[in-house]
User: Which sequence fits this backbone?
């Protein structure tokens, strides 16, 4: 495992010096899960899983526009209810990740449980605390998933299990940025 892969395995969303994690995500990747991907990176499924995890690190954790261009197909289709389709939309999202609007409450942190890859599809299963509807203000341990379809080494489609947010991620109100 290279130094970069070990860094990714230790913690997916890195802290900048003296700052909270970029994007305020704390998706800790489990070293054991990455070992099976890195043991023989030669299969299509293993390469695709690596692309998805690298994309998550770059786009979601670091808010990197370069990662969007490297991993996301220009005709990217977003099946999640809170985000529009298109690579340009993800480029805009990275701007919001790096500079969130005042009052933005980030989603609960995700911790990698497992990746499952078959043909051109990769599913990532996360452990994520969920709001408890029976006990307002409390959470319970739950799971979330993200599923990606890749084509020629680029992510072309995404699905997940999210519910609608109270406010669109793309809404920008004047004066809300710090």
Assistant:
């Amino acid at each position: 495992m290279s130094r970069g892969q070990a860094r990714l395995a230790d913690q997916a969303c890195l802290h900048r010096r003296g700052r909270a994690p970029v994007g305020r995500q704390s998706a800790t990747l489990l070293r054991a899960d990455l070992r099976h991907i890195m043991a023989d990176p030669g299969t299509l499924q293993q390469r695709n899983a690596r692309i998805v995890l690298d994309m998550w690190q770059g786009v979601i954790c670091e808010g990197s526009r370069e990662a969007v261009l490297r991993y996301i197909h220009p005709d990217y289709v977003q099946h999640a209810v809170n985000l529009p389709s298109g690579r340009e939309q993800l480029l805009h999202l990275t701007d919001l990740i790096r500079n969130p609007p005042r009052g933005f409450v980030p989603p609960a942190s995700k911790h990698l449980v497992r990746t499952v890859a078959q043909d051109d599809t990769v599913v990532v299963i996360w452990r994520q605390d969920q709001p408890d509807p029976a006990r307002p203000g409390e959470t319970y341990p739950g799971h979330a998933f993200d599923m990606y379809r890749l084509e020629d080494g680029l992510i072309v489609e995404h699905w997940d299990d999210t519910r609608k947010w109270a406010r669109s991620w793309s809404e920008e109100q004047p004066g809300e940025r710090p």
